[in-house]
Amino acid sequence: MDHSLDALLQNELDRLTAISRRRRLRPVHWSEGGMRDAAGRPLIDASSNDYLGLSQHPLVKQRAAEWAQRHGAGAPASRLITGTRDITLAVEEKLAAFKGCEAALLFNTGFQANATVIPALVKVGSGDTATIFSDELNHASIIHGVRMARCPTEIFRHNDLAHLDELLARHGGRKLILTESVFSMDGDRADLPALVKLAEKHGAALYVDEAHTTGVFGPQGRGLAAECGGIDIVMGTLGKAVGAFGAYIAGSRALIDYLVNRCTGFIYTTALPPPVLGAVDAALDLIPSMDAERARLANNAQRLREALAAAGLSTQESTTQIVPAIIGSEADALAAAKKLDDAGILAVAIRPPTVPEGTSRLRFALSSSLDDEAMSRLLAAVKTL
Ligand SMILES: *Cc1c(COP(=O)(O)O)cnc(C)c1O
Fold first, then answer.
1. Is 367 a catalytic residue?
2. 209 is catalytic
3. How close is the Cα of 302 to the center of ligand 1, in Å?
């Protein structure tokens, strides 16, 4: 028997193929103002997280190019060495003002932020280790952070605040509640005002991941945390509606200064490059005035939910631009994605372990840049599912 690593890996890949869980990379490219598949066929993109179309906005692309010309393609050191430029601090100040927080800190990715900020907050100096309370549907990067924190952890049922209340009451000491403001695979929302009240009642700190709300929800797209207040740690991404790349943590000056000293995912990594900072800077100029695009996005999502309901498919509790169409088995979800693909629609099948067993789905992620013609084609194709 072949005991090589490759043989072991191939065996596992074969097992994944047999249960319809093997994932494959599929190249698409951007040309003539739209997405195309490898053969050059135009695709209606119903799967990207570019909710406001900002990754293709002329001003965003232009400022990325300008800042590359002026400041270089990279900032080739970590933030505490020479990776902090005047433009880095300016973008952080702009982000803090956008989020209505005292301070903000850039991270290279949302995954890196969640995976390393959570552990940094659990054990602070020689103080008590906190207990974590995490929603069962939190993103893989949050789960990673929780595991890295190696502390007592309670997982509460999805959006079940009575369950959370009960679990919080069972523990003394410092507590940290983790949630997303809009959940990435279901497109439903957390009840942030109620979570803030619960956190206050139990003396817990509240950490909210705004990956899917930054730019999309709240006053002028500032996120749901901006609307509600009272949240200790706000995390968000810059690669989704902001159309660029990277992530941020926003909160008090003490929180940010502490992370500069103690967060490994901030300290031991190269700073974000100038073109990315330029794109973020331009997007932050544009987002507050994009209410028309936000309304169009909400309308696109509502029309899709209605079409899916008419086709007999559940969209669960979605009220946002993320719309799941629950199919069930892995094979059926892949077949549904293939059917839409044949109609020129890119809607990716999401399978376990990303979502619970038996809830394989198409995950639609819409954009305000889908025009009436694209929406008509999408809705017509959905009717055939
Ligand atoms: C996408 C996502 C992340 C990861 O952000 P990246 O910048 O893409 O690494 C974190 N949390 C949630 C909820 C997400 O959807």
1. no
2. yes
3. 24
Cα–Cα nearest to 269, from 135, 117, 160? 117
Q: Is the same domain home to 131 and 141?
A: yes
Say how many Å lie between the CA of residue 172 and the centre of ligand 1: 31
Q: What is the pLDDT of residues 43-78, one digit of tens each?
A: 999 999 999 999 999 999 999 999 999 999 999 999
Residues with CB under 6 Å of ligand 1 are 109-111, 114, 139, 141, 180, 184, 209, 211-212, 237, 239, 247
The number of the ligand 1 atom at minimal distance from the alpha carbon of 212 is 15
**Last residue within a domain, chosen from 288, 312, 331:** 288
Torsion sign, CA atoms 253, 256, 260, 262 = positive
Exposure letters 178-196 (e unless 16+ CB within 10 A, then b): bbbbbbbbbbbbbebeebb
Residue 262: give its domain's CATH number. 3.40.640.10
Question: Which protein residue's CA is at the shortest distance from atom 5 of ligand 1?
Answer: 110
Domain that holds residue 356: 26-52+290-382
* Catalytic annotation, pick one of 49, 114, 159, 369: 49
CATH number of residue 358's parent domain? 3.90.1150.10
Backbone conformation region of residue 218, classed left if phi is above 0, alpha if psi is from -120 to 50, else beta: left
Measured distance CA(136)–CA(148) in Å, rounded: 17
Please report whether residue 9 resides in a domain: no
Nearest CA to ligand 1 atom 14: 211
Q: pLDDT (tens digit, 9 = 90+) per residue, 159-205?
A: 999 999 999 999 999 999 999 999 999 999 999 999 999 999 999 99
Decide if 92 is inside a domain.
yes
Q: Mean of the per-residue pLDDT values for the chain?
A: 96
Which of 264, 288, 312 lies at the terminal end of a domain, its last residue? 288
pTM value is 0.96
